[in-house]
Amino acid sequence: MTQTASDKAPLAPATSTTGHPDTDRELLSCHDPRTGELLGEYPVHTAADVADAVARAAEAGQWWAALSFAERRQHLDQWRRLLLHRQDELVNLISAETGKPADDARLELVLVIDHLHWAARNAARVLGRRKVPAGLLMANQVATLEYQPLGVVGVIGPWNYPAFTPMGSIAYALAAGNAVVFKPSELTPGVGHFLADTLAQVVGERPVLSVVTGYGETGAALCRSGVAKVAFTGSTATAKRVMAACAESLTPVLVECGGKDALIVDSDADLDAAAQAAVWGGMSNAGQTCVGVERVYVVEAVADRFIELVTARAGRLRPGGEPGADLGPITLPRQVDIIREHVRDALDRGGRAVVGGPESIRPPFVEPVVLVDVPEDAAAVTDETFGPTLTITRVADADEAVRLANASRYGLGGTVFARARGDELARALRAGMVAVNSVISFAAVPSLPFGGVGDSGFGRIHGEDGLREFARAKSITRKRFRVPLQPMTFDRGSRTVRRLMRLIQLRYRR
Ligand code: NAD
């Protein structure tokens, strides 16, 4: 269905976000990447619109923050049930805007629901007011800690998981008591509106979550709008621009960026399971997954067999536009050029394609490409390809695999297939998250923090850390009774601090 700024359909963006009339407004068009069909037109919100949205969110946020954790949980639980009730609409919208197969969109919905449930259920435990030990020196004090909401959080999202990825920030920020202004990717504005519209239904139309649409300038305006924090998910290059804009007003940022995740196959690994994981991790969602597998390091002793298994599995996959296709199109048209360039460069530099090749690139679709013997400094090994491609490199042992895997400026996720040394290798990988003998499973464990190191960003979504990202610690001491030793007053006697020193010596000398 085509939506325009003047439509009255529930997903039509019209004036709902900012209250400004949309006549004469620049519009962005949203297309189905499988067919090119126009899906909708959305306003390109200006800095004034963004300021307006943030001001309205701040007001709604005061109401939201004043609710108890239990009351917020009720609303978020209701939202979760509504999302499940309207799951078909959301799944269709995700598929239409990204081109991904229906089951991949359903998987995204499953993750959204699980995380939303976890964040709502655990916010009180993680953030709520509690007593903490006051310690020896302040034994006469009651010390309490709580995590208070920041205010309005700006969330800037990508298109590859247009619901799951931003919800990693949105659900946790809301559960922590913040209001959110969300700037979805220009490729997936409808999903953003769907999320905001459904939450609006359960909070009496208050803009606790509102959406601004547009390109990079709208995102930059959100960074400069005075929000209390920006949670950005997208490319490393854009993250630097986001940080520069946020630096102007000392606005804190959380940045979740790209990756070049490695999968390590040790000599004692279950090779069939490793091949299955490498192919799914590398090819699902047409390789457009921040924590997708892009590089494989396999121990020489099992390399031939592993490559055979990967070749057989990857060679069977077919991209297409139908809901049951193995993989969909490349959502962002210009990404096709990067994929083509990585494959061409790898082959020019001595690499060999064991599945596919340059002919696999038929925009908007890319068939699986598996490359071997690619030099470690080729772009296909060093840069994010974001397509259904894998490089497989033979290594002498798992330690060499770890060394090569870690020689990347990225450090988002990782995978290890090994029997004896699984945990040890996982701990040695320079990455925020690692799955042992499965792939990407950490993203589906809501209690595990998600985020990277190096060019993959910093800060954490999901889990307890993900809740605390959107709250500030508030520490309070309350004096219960007066003690004779009072070192923090000008009325202290001359011996007070010396007595204190003796006490400290007795307590901590050994
Ligand atoms: P992108 O960086 O092009 O855009 C991300 C968002 O930033 C979009 O909403 C865009 O409009 C906005 N934006 C662009 N310029 C801006 C500016 N100057 N100021 C503020 N906002 C601006 O990324 P993308 O192509 O949408 O997404 C793909 C990238 O996201 C990949 O690198 C992928 O690895 C990464 N990603 C990371 C994670 C993670 O959790 N680490 C998850 C999903 C995707």
Write the layout of secondary structure elements.
Elements: E1 27-31, E2 38-43, H1 47-66, H2 69-85, H3 87-98, H4 102-127, E3 130-132, E4 141-149, E5 152-156, H5 164-175, E6 179-183, H6 189-202, E7 209-211, H7 216-223, E8 229-233, H8 236-247, E9 253-256, E10 261-265, H9 271-283, E11 293-299, H10 300-315, H11 335-348, E12 352-355, E13 361-362, E14 365-366, E15 369-372, H12 379-382, E16 389-395, H13 398-406, E17 410-411, E18 413-417, H14 422-428, E19 433-436, E20 453-454, E21 457-458, H15 463-468, E22 471-479, H16 496-508
Parallel strand pairs: 5-6, 5-8, 6-7, 8-9, 10-11, 10-18, 11-16, 15-16, 18-19
Antiparallel strand pairs: 1-2, 3-4, 4-22, 9-21, 12-15, 13-14, 17-20
Bound molecules: nicotinamide-adenine-dinucleotide.
Residues 156-161, 165, 183, 185-186, 215-216, 219-220, 223, 233-235, 238, 241-242, 245, 256-259, 290, 332, 384, 412, 457 line the site of nicotinamide-adenine-dinucleotide.
